[in-house]
TrEMBL record:
PROSITE patterns: HPT
Record GO terms (molecular function): protein kinase activity
Organism from which the protein derives: Pseudodesulfovibrio hydrargyri
Protein name: Hpt domain protein
Domain spans labelled HPt: 30-123
Keywords of this entry: Phosphoprotein
Organism ancestry: Bacteria, Pseudomonadati, Thermodesulfobacteriota, Desulfovibrionia, Desulfovibrionales
Pfam name, any one: Hpt
Amino acid sequence: MHGNFRQDGAAVPGGAVFDAVAASADIGLTLEEFAPLLTKAAVEIRLRLDAVRQGMADNDLEAVALNSHTMKSVAATLGAEAARQAALELECCAKNGDAARSPELFADLEFRAAELLTELDRA
């Protein structure tokens, strides 16, 4: 598992949005080696969030599912459990064609992504 991605859905210790120490250790990197990935992760999250937003606007649930899936993977790599879970829920909803529930889940994903991006921008 990456970072604090846990089967039981446990939160990152100390209420942190992500756990760089655990995530770097999980993929076998030092914190110094892991740090450049944080900038790339922030760029990817912003790109995918924009793509999800566009998919929502276009009622393109396939695009929503694809881009939520990528966000889920990036969040998991960082050990950002709340963002990973939000992306997973929206991905599953979009794959199931549930256009009625998608806006609620997208709002949660936007919130969780904003939290994560704030922390990544500080790193």
